[in-house]
Specification:
heterodimer; A: mainly alpha; elongated; B: mainly alpha; 13 helices; about 65% helix; flat; disordered C terminus
């Protein structure tokens, strides 16, 4: 508890947990392809840094670590706002959360990362696809008139 | 290059945890891993985390040691499951678990205000993440980009090396004079403010003038020169607020400016452009035929 002394063993344990959170968050940010999961991984790295700062502040007996953590909270709020807006804008352009769809903005000369969907495990018909899965129905009746060109292009 | 036994043990533990995380990560081409492989990965990560934290001996009662272990294991394992869950909804839920465990660690470290503030702030963030997942996620099961990950082995290897470097630095600093002099650190008091640092009389007088202007006599904030009464626990939030609004006043104002700029930036880039109707597109093309460089120069 707070009134007990804070030994170096406890400090190093807290630092180890913070370092582990940062490393695991790096795995998630580098390896995952969903933009939302990448955002969550970045937030998790910030949690690891906050843990490190609080432990250092407690060890040195001043409030600076906690003040810096409050600053991290403010910066994380800004980051969350802008990251989620960017996710929305990117989704509006490509209609997918896949980060690999944006590999054309990398440095020139990089080999492209290609999906191989034929190797992927097919989704069995019996699996639960979530609440947004609809059954396939046989088309019936007259097809209603609809625009030949979909309205997906936006003004500059 | 010779490794000490401790460093070699740490490296092997981290490598075991990294291998377990790699087993849990989605395959790079979306192949489904067998369930025994996933269970083995989770168990490897669990055992590696438990052994890495074995040296953490919390002083005091056994109960606080137990709670520390619970929070630490929960934080690391939830973090692994956050980055390895296929469904983004599950990722968000595990991230909530990471935040709760981290708040518990904050509480054990003597940061009660931050524990509460983190839970409050990140609860909102996680709800917004849920909204985004529900709004944007693929409508027919898990998309291929959720079931596959990019270069999982190389990403895990890089993170294993990073974590080993960090833990090596932490372990090798044990026993140095910097880690033994101030041991054990007294609990946080209001006088832990930086304003109590000046030693010369002139500096102390200047600090007192700044403090008198920042914390007037009618204020309820604890003053840096005020010693806590014996038997009365120090006022945590008031002390933190006193430090924040005296020592770090400019940082607070900069944070406010940063939040405002982020608000403006978010609002300005999120505004959707209006859609182009196909009728308008045809009218526009008729009125402005594609101009060649020659006609553009002539105009």
């Amino acid at each position: 508890m707070p009134s007990e002394p804070f030994s170096f063993d406890l400090l190093s344990a807290n630092l180890a947990i913070g370092a582990a959170l940062v490393a695991i968050g790096m795995i998630g940010f580098v390896a995952r392809r969903n933009l939302i999961v990448m955002f969550l991984s970045a937030e998790m790295m910030l949690q690891g840094v906050a843990l490190t700062l609080v432990a250092f502040g407690r060890y040195h007996g001043n409030w600076t670590g906690q003040v810096l953590t409050i600053m991290i909270l403010a910066v994380a709020a800004c980051e969350a706002a802008i990251a989620l807006v960017l996710v929305l804008v990117l989704y509006g352009r490509r209609h997918s959360l896949d980060a690999s769809l944006w590999q054309d903005i990398r440095d020139p000369g990089q080999p492209p990362t290609l999906d191989r969907p034929e190797e992927a495990e097919p989704i069995e018909p019996g699996t639960d696809l979530g609440p947004e899965a609809y059954p396939h129905l046989t088309p019936a009746g007259i097809e209603p008139p609809h625009a030949s060109t979909p309205w997906i292009e936006r003004r500059d | 290059m010779t490794l000490s036994q401790e460093a070699a043990t740490t490296l092997s533990l981290i490598a075991a945890g990294g291998f377990g995380t790699w087993l849990l990560l989605p395959h790079s081409h979306g192949l489904a891993r067998a369930k025994p492989a996933r269970i083995l990965g989770f168990l490897l990560t669990l055992v590696a985390t438990a052994f890495l934290l074995r040296g953490a001996s919390a002083p005091g009662s056994g109960l606080s040691t137990l709670f520390f272990y619970i929070f630490a294991m929960a934080a690391v394992l939830s973090a692994v499951l956050t980055v390895t869950s296929i469904s983004p909804i599950h990722s968000a839920l595990w991230f909530a678990s990471v935040v709760l465990a981290t708040s518990g660690l904050f509480l054990m470290t003597g940061a009660q205000f931050l524990a509460a503030a983190t839970v409050i702030v990140y609860a909102g963030a996680i709800i917004v993440t849920f909204l985004f997942v529900v709004m944007l996620a693929s409508v027919s099961g898990h998309a291929l980009y959720d079931r596959s990950s990019r270069m999982p082995a190389r990403a895990t290897l890089a993170s294993v090396l990073l974590l080993w470097t960090l833990l090596y630095a932490i372990q090798s600093s044990a026993g140095t004079p910097a880690t033994t002099v101030a041991n054990p650190t007294p609990p946080l008091r209001p006088a832990s403010s930086l304003a109590s640092v000046p030693t010369t009389p002139a500096d102390r007088e200047a600090a007192a003038r700044v403090l008198a202007a920042a914390v007037p006599a009618r204020s309820h904030l604890p003053r840096y020169d005020q010693q806590p009464l014996p038997g009365v626990p120090p006022r945590h939030v008031a002390s933190l607020g006193a430090t924040l609004f005296t020592d770090h006043l400019i940082a607070v104002q900069l944070a406010a400016v940063l939040l405002f700029i982020a608000l403006v930036a978010g609002a300005s880039i999120s505004r959707p452009k209006p859609l182009i109707r196909p009728v308008d597109r045809r009218k526009h093309d008729d009125a402005h035929p594609v101009s060649t460089p020659a006609t553009a120069n002539a105009r």
